[in-house]
From TrEMBL:
Species name: Mycolicibacterium vanbaalenii (strain DSM 7251 / JCM 13017 / BCRC 16820 / KCTC 9966 / NRRL B-24157 / PYR-1) (Mycobacterium vanbaalenii)
SUPFAM superfamilies: Flavoproteins (SSF52218)
Name the record gives this protein: NADPH-dependent FMN reductase-like domain-containing protein
Phylogenetic placement of the source organism: Bacteria, Bacillati, Actinomycetota, Actinomycetes, Mycobacteriales
Gene Ontology terms for molecular function: oxidoreductase activity
Every NADPH-dependent FMN reductase-like domain range: 10-146
């Protein structure tokens, strides 16, 4: 099968603090990532996590009214996971941290050759905020995702930070800066490329 014919599914977990249908810069930059993913033939779906009851914990299912299991099924079905988060107080949003904690359960989820279930999957990150801190947020999220088993493509992140102590958000921009747009497109292209490579040639057994 030609590489560009290999089907790829992408899931964006939008970790905004704002529930739907409130406008969200994290959702908007994720959609900009999706634009290139779709151009590369990927099927895309977004989930705004704050719209769901994601219980605290590090298990796949915390019981009661926990809605993480239905999100988890989408995570497991996706070849590419996009985490899109704002920066708050120099850190990823609390929603992002909750998602990473729930993904921790996948460390014990292995295939019949001992590989983590996420070892054949790709993760990328998009970050927005009006204060500096995107590099730290990306590093924190990348570390968690890689620990779980995700592979990170070359230049697998994109971000936008507005001027410090001002109120402009990414969603308020009249036009996305060219450097941000090109970085977003590169992250998406590289993610699709790596996802297709891993679907053809998995990591060796553990």
């Amino acid at each position: 099968m030609a590489e560009n014919a290999i089907p790829v599914r992408a899931l964006g977990l939008i970790c905004s603090l704002k529930p739907s249908p409130a406008p969200s810069s994290s959702a908007l930059i994720a959609e900009h990532v999706f634009e290139t993913l779709r151009e590369q033939g990927a099927e895309c779906e977004a989930v705004r996590c704050v719209d769901f009851n994601i219980a605290p914990g590090v298990e796949a299912d915390m019981g009661d009214s926990d809605q993480w299991p239905q999100i988890r099924q989408k995570v497991l079905a996706a070849d590419i996971l996009l985490i899109s988060t704002p920066v708050w107080l120099g850190h990823p949003s609390s929603v992002t941290q909750r998602v990473l904690e729930r993904l921790d359960a996948e460390l014990s989820n292995t295939d019949d050759q001992g590989r983590p279930a996420m070892a054949g999957k790709v993760a990328i990150v998009s970050v927005v905020g009006n204060e500096d801190g995107a590099h730290k947020v990306v590093a924190d999220v990348f570390q968690g995702l890689n620990d779980v088993g995700y592979s990170i493509p070359a230049q697998g992140c994109t971000y936008w930070n507005g001027p410090a102590m001002e109120s402009t958000d990414y969603k308020d921009l009249d036009e996305v800066p060219e450097q941000v747009a090109s970085t977003t497109a590169a992250a998406a292209r590289n993610a699709v490329r790596l996802a297709r490579v891993l679907k053809q040639a998995q990591y060796p057994p553990y």
